[in-house]
Amino acid sequence: xxxxxxxxxxxxxxxxxxxxxxxxxxxxxxxxxxxxxxxxxxxxxxxxxxxxxxxxxxxxxxxxxxxxxxxxxxxxxxxxxxxxxxxxxxxxxxxxxxxxxxxxxxxxxxxxxxxxxxxxxxxxxxxxxxxxxxxxxxxxxxxxxxxxxxxxxxxxxxxxxxxxxxxxxxxxxxxxxxxxxxxxxxxxxxxxxxxxxxxxxxxxxxxxxxxxxxxxxxxxx
Length: 221
Prior knowledge:
This protein is of the alpha/beta class. The chain has helices spanning about 10-25, 50-60, 65-70, 80-85, 90-105, 125-135, 150-160, 180-190, 205-210, and strands at about 1-5, 30-35, 35, 40-45, 45-50, 70, 110, 140-145, 165-175, 195-200. Helix 1 packs parallel to helix 2, helix 5 packs parallel to helix 6 (about 125-135) and helix 7 runs parallel beside helix 8. The protein is globular.
């Protein structure tokens, strides 16, 4: 399952953590992956990303960090730009190899994307090429705020047109002052993909609460 979003900073990581916990509660071995991450920090063991570390920790699986996050970058910018600045090339084959290894160690793998759907990976490939190579269904996280209807419909349209399988979307309330129910209802009316979960505005991560909201996913994925 691939988790993408309408933008950056709209709750993909929190939703990824909640989904991992949701499926773990069904007695599944769940691996998580954040293939590419920018805004990493330096440690004695190399660059680390806080989102990837949370994903690795919640799985409870004994996995090497670089299998979960093969491409960490320090600059907090678009990954392909960060890769250029550090004289690296993001190789799709390496990401797919790691993903396939994770598949052998778990019942399912939940992969968190980066930025929005059209973010490039390198000079010739974008995020959608990675999803197509993984042959993995997509869940769209929609940050519920002003403008979310347009962002949701455009992103969903692009996912489908790119040949990927959009299995549903999550309405994630990210603006405490925005009354979003009418926007959620409108998106539901226009999208053929079902609303899988509706999460409340939170100032602090509450994985148990968010996992309980993922009831629309069942155990069929």
